[in-house]
Amino acid sequence: MNLNDERINQTLEALHSRARKQELRLVWENLSQWPNVLMGRGVRWNDRSGEKLQNKFICVDPQQGQLLYMLARCARAQTILEFGTSFGVSTIYLAAAVRDNGGGKVYGTEFEPTKAKEAKKHLEQAGLSEFVEIIEGDARQTLKNFEAPIDFALIDGFPPYNLEILRLVQNRIREGGIVLSDDIGLFKEDLASYVAYMSEPSNGFRSAKLELNGGTLLSVKTAA
After folding, report:
1. Are 156 and 186 in contact (CB under 8 A)?
2. What is the pTM of this model?
3. 3-class SS letters over 8-47
């Protein structure tokens, strides 16, 4: 987890520790869905899912965070869009990459006001606030007029909305830009249409599935 910055590392260590402590409770609260997980069918998002996760991290693990950082550095990303900021763990990795790329901005969307407030606090603790703008509200509305050219996008909010959000900003993603989506194995049915769209080259992307925690889809924009 070493990003050569003590403030960032200390903040991430504390947040990952809090996230790990929530994992057992999450398993218990969703016990009825685990047979589907074990049989490879994943879990389904429902009307109560968002409510259950209001105070939960559901964040990238350190390995995924390092991948975010390295990919954003390789892409020399200066403008990053994140759908689903939550408590700001992934945002910290992305903002660190933007800083180390020479500057820019991470635009993070978050529906829950409490999470947005906490994310801002965590970014301040990490010393990265100047590189992030949190956009509060329903991303399906707040991103309608998003105009900045996107070098890197993390699509990791409510699973049923992934494809809608992607298509909303697709024309803003530059050719060669990277799109990363998490939990494609965990929310297999909810993300099936998204994975199918991103896996069809005629839609302007090349994609590969990575066997990381929950399943990850890595995509590259091939056509402007």
Report:
1. no
2. 0.88
3. HHHHHHHHHHHHHHHHHHHHHHCHHHHHHHHCCCCCCCCC
